[in-house]
Amino acid sequence: EVRLVESGGDLVKPGGSLRLSCAVSGFNFNDAWMNWFRQTTGKGLEWVGRIKSRGDGETTDYGAPVKGRFTISRDDSKNTLYLEMTSLKAEDTAVYYCAWYLQHWGPGTLVTVSS
Amino acid sequence: DIVMTQSPDSLAVSLGERATINCKSSQSVLNSSNNRNYLAWYQQKPGQPPKLLIYWASTREYGVPDRFSGSGSGTDFTLTINSLQAEDVAIYYCQQYDSIPWTFGQGTRVEIK
After folding, report:
1. Which of A89, A85, A115, A113 is nearest to A6 (CA)?
2. C-alpha span between A23 and A88 (Å, rounded)
3. Among candidates A62, A98, A103, which has minimal Cα distance to A80?
4. Is the confidence at residue B93, as pLDDT, over 90?
C-alpha cells in the first residue's frame, strides 16, 4: 500500500524558517519524482515544486511565489522528502501536501505564519 | 503560467440527476507528440487531500465509480457526474500537468438540491 505522511507543520513567525518532512512507503521512492502542493482558503490549491529522482538528476523546479525561499530535497536512504522553507510570509500559511504522481497524496500538515 | 478557469463556482443538483462542471485552460494542454491532454480532475471533501478522479482528461482512476466521466480536448474540458449520490458532495478541481508550474482551477462546490 502506498503511504505518504507529512510532518513538521507548526506556528512560525514571519521571517522564520521551517522544515517539513514526508515519509513514504509502498513504492520505489528512489525512482519517484515527488511534488509538494499547498492549499489555502483564499488561493485554493497551488503547486509548490517538485524534485526528480537521482537517476534523472535530482533537479528541482519551484513555483514563482516560493522560488528562492523554499528548497526541496530528498533522502532516498530514509524514503523521505523534505521542504525547507525560509523567509516565511503570512501568505505561506497553508496546508502542505506531498504527492507522488497525481494519485497519491499525504493527509497534509498545517503551517501557520503569524506573529 | 496556464490559467485554469472553472464554471460554475457552485451548483446544486438533485439526487440522481446529472452534474456538469466545466474547465477552460488559457492555452492548450494537448501534447501533439502523444495526443494526450494533460488534464486531471480531483474531488476533495473536508479535511481530506484531493482525490484523483480522472487523468488524461478522460481516463478514470482505478476504483472511481463509472458515474464520473471526463471529456474535452485542447482548452475546454468537462467533468460529468451522472446520477448524483449523496457521497458526491464535495469540491471538484481541474488541474493541468502539461507545463510547469502545474496549475489548478478555483474549484466547483457541488451540493444536493
Report:
1. A85
2. 23
3. A98
4. yes
Question: Which residues, other chains included, contact A68 with Cβ-Cβ below 8 Å and sequence gap of 6+?
Answer: none
Kindly tell me the sign of the dihedral angle through the C-alpha atoms of B33, B102, B52, A8. Answer: positive
Task: Give the whole-angstrom CA distance, residue B58 versus residue B70.
Answer: 4
Q: Which cell numbers in the block locate residue A91?
A: 501568505
Per-residue HEC secondary structure of A10-41 comes to CEECCCCCEEEEEEEECCCHHHCCEEEEEEEC
Of B50, B51, B100, the CB nearest to A45: B50
Instruction: Identify the pLDDT of residue A42.
Output: 74
- Model confidence over B62-89: pLDDT tens digits? 999 999 999 999 999 999 999 999 999 9
CB contact under 8 A, B61 and A61: no
